[in-house]
Design goal:
Number of helices: 18
Distance between the termini: 16 Å
Largest sheet: none
Radius of gyration: 24 Å
Order of helices and strands: HHHHHHHHHHHHHHHHHH
Helix content: 55-70%
Structural class: mainly alpha
Number of strands: 0
Length: 483
Amino acid sequence: MLFPTLEFGIFFLIVFTVSWALRFEPVSRKWFLVGASYLFYGWWDWRFTGLLFGTTLFNYLGGLALGRTERPGLRKLIVGVTVAVDLGVLAFFKYYGFFLTSLDGLLTTLGLHRDLPFLEIILPIGISFFTFQGISYVVDVYRGHIQAERSLLDVMLFKSFFPQLVAGPIVRAADFIPQLHQPARLTREHVAVGTVLILSGLAKKMVIANNLATELVDPVFFDPTAVGGLDLWLGIYGYAIQIYCDFSGYSDIAIGVAALLGYRFRANFDQPYRAASLQEFWRRWHISLSTWLRDYLYIPLGGNRHGEVQRYRNLFLTMFLGGLWHGAAWTFVFWGSFHGAMLGVERWAGRKLDEFAPARGDEAGIVSRFGNFAQHVVGVVWTFHLVCFAWIFFRADSFPTAWDYLKGLTDWSGAHEHVTPFLVGLVSLGLIFQFTPRDLGRELALGLRELPSPLLGLFLGFGILIIWAVAPEGVAPFIYFQF
């Protein structure tokens, strides 16, 4: 069930109406939301609802076990086993075929070919997201950040809540479960924020991302040798905007839908292409994943506590595994490894530059301010193109395709059929919105908050109709569904 469809609209209208009718019966309301979430998840393949429940029950029992013992050795064993099982389930469904295919290729190259136990495994949608949620819950209980939850119902709703279930954001138990202990309330602020986020998310996905995908990105990446260099340059800029609008659009809708049901999620994107460094980029892009990797991987590896060399190693390993999390393919591994390596290079170069040319004391001077502004602009342009270079490998279906794409960027002899005013305008619009005021959405929500409820509902409905009218036909799945 996709967000920008009539079937989801009917589904959410029913969920919205019934859930608020049950607002004075919190247990019944939670059971209803769990049932609706399992229906939403089972819409793709009902068989995987059992997997979702099984992993939820296992994480719940792991949390209870941690809450009932104070012995350090036993607590480490419990959290280790629980996390190992979570990762084992994820590895089997997502990476079994990838590792076996890679092993088969290696054995064949070495002249040691063997018949390996290949299986046809269907990837459960959203498994990467709800697995990470389960791990964070158990680890946070182990660390003492939250108490072990005694209610299985609350843990079920935490892991299955349908707005974020299949493509994030990765919601932390410490942020969500305490909300389940409070009376459900729907304020004007919830409705206004939800309206703005849903409309902005639908516009990003249906108008910008879908048009760029069908008219530009899919054709140029299908066969980079068949188009000219200008098409390829616009294509990679187009993909940078497409994946941002696609994924941040989903996050906006998810956060908006949750707000209309009375729950608050944290923002998942913060204008990432205005970043002046890769470190800043990862503070702005897919914030729920980057902070998860920081808190549950980078810091446990040692973070920056044991010197620069260890810090570079930890950065690289974190991004390497982050790339592998995104997909079972060597192109994703390269994408993550490139980001990890460049984060280390960026850190090293910045430290050397500070040693060679330390900051001057006349920061208030005109020359210094101009120099700082120019340095910032160069940083934004450089960071954006580093990210775009890595996106080529993220989007390409293989290394040969990525290599053809890179070679084609220098060949301007071919036709440029995809460089149209409409597509250039969409890419430009996507980039312009990276530099609008950060509080623009909040200001819009504050303005809408003053409207009467019926008028606000009409505004939401009319906005959805306009978006559907100008969007291309068909509903493309969100990119992050495959992860």
